[in-house]
Amino acid sequence: MPSVPGEHFDSSLHAVREQTHTLLGRTIAYSPEDWAAPTRLPGWTRGHIAAHLIKGARGLAQVCRELLEGVSPGGYDSSLGRDCELLAISDGLHLQIELDTSAGELDQLLTQLPGRDGEVSLRPGLRISINDLPLVRLRELMLHGFDLEPEASRLDVDDDAAAPVLAFEAAHLADENDPLELVTLEGRVVRTGVRPPHRRAAGPASALLLWLARGIESEGLEYDKI
């Protein structure tokens, strides 16, 4: 599986902060009915997505903390559990505070990691560069920010921020059995799988990311066979 260079730490961390600011600015206006509304994810309300993002921030913060302490991280788990189910149905103010505080804690730990060599195993089959840890959070914020709004038709993110997340998705999370070639507007070529690609998609990095991660086609994408 191709690797993703960990050269985007500072820019990705900046993008994490921007996406967090955007998320909190949106959710602060949610009413109780808004929090209970369905999302693009079957069976998930906006409260569930918030709980998932809170757990994800705490889990990634623990990975960072263990790395800083010189301990082998125990892995990263952001899946919904009973604790998340209870958090998801708590009041909106509590969710807002937890989103803010968990994001702040993660930010403080991530800022201590630039320049560290090595890799970290987040779960079986997912081993990444330490310098790519901000991309884990950035991906969650971008995609789940989209999931919050069922009527949204595109990712509301800059292509410069989306490009490294697209490369991360292609390298670590895409289906290896469906080899693809993805070409951004800037001419950057990203491939998935280990075999030669049989399909090509071209367009904005944000649209390519949404297609690769969610299977949603956006305006501006072009497809052809190789």
From TrEMBL:
Domain of life of the native organism: Bacteria
All residue ranges annotated as the Mycothiol-dependent maleylpyruvate isomerase metal-binding domain in the record: 17-149
GO MF: isomerase activity; metal ion binding
Matches recorded under Gene3D superfamilies: dinb family like domain
Annotated InterPro entries: DinB/YfiT-like (IPR034660), Maleyloyr_isom (IPR017517), MDMPI_metal-binding (IPR024344)
UniProt KW keywords: Isomerase, Pyruvate
Pfam family, one: MDMPI_N
SUPFAM superfamilies in UniProt: DinB/YfiT-like putative metalloenzymes
Protein name: Mycothiol-dependent maleylpyruvate isomerase
Organism classification: Bacteria, Bacillati, Actinomycetota, Actinomycetes, Propionibacteriales
